[in-house]
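One-letter codes give the sequence; each number marks local geometry. A record appears below:


***
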Amino acid sequence: MTTTAGGGPRRGPEPTGRTGGPSTRPKGTRAATGSGSKGPARLDPDELAALEEQRDFLLRSLQDLEREHDAGDLEDDDYRELRDDYTGRAAETLRAIDEQRAAFADARTGKGRGRTLATFGAVILFAVVAGLLVASSLGARKAGDTITGGVDTQQTPSQKAQACVQQMDPQAPSKPIACFRAVLDDDPKNVVALTWLSWQLELSADYVPAAQAAELQDAAGSMVERAVTSDPGYSYARAFRAIIAFRHGQYAEAKRYLADFRARKPSSEAEALITQFDLDGQIDTALAGGGTTTTVPGATTSVPLGPVTTTTTPG
């Protein structure tokens, strides 16, 4: 346990809106109810805004925690304990946001389209938090890189893509798409940008008319294939390829992709994503119910996705 100058135990930073800020919950923020709450989500724009504020607050706190750990101000055991605590709280908040947005989507359409995202909500709430937590493993800081304050001008493309992950929003895709595109303009084969852009497109398809949804789904499938080709060893790319295939009704292919994912000794974070989604069970249930493979055509979307390349990199 890290100790202060006076010899007392030091627990580490509490969540803050910014480094060194007050240890308080954002004003007006309520505790997230989580997907385990009974009954449909109540349509409350103020509650949704408060939850989104809490989400930003917690995700910034996770970044603050990473900076303290990287600077050597927080021991590994304390770091892991606090990281798990903040991650759990962020996950609950993201789950509650997902339920609110799904309820609003249902109210707008009069159908169950919003429930589609709620069914898969556990995937994105884990994915967004996990994306932040694995940032350090995607590219260690180099000599001269900053660790506090301002924008780090020496970030690697993968670190820049991780910043785009924080902006992901199924109902407001323009900003994250532009962010990922900027990374791909500089590094067309960047596997992090390709992977998470594919997931952004896939989720946004739940909030647009059918014709546009088909284009976004086509683009998502194409993008995740590019990611797998770009870096065969990036576990998240293979995980999302299996998930996207399942969402598209390609149950046999999803099962094959899942076996391929496991054969390559995936990271524990990516495996946890599959487990949380219960992809094995959902695929088996779909196949047992007579589900068949549906061919999904290539991408024809007009969404700016950056240049296409088929060049592979070492695994």
Notes: The chain has a mean pLDDT of 70. The two ends are 38 Å apart (CA to CA).
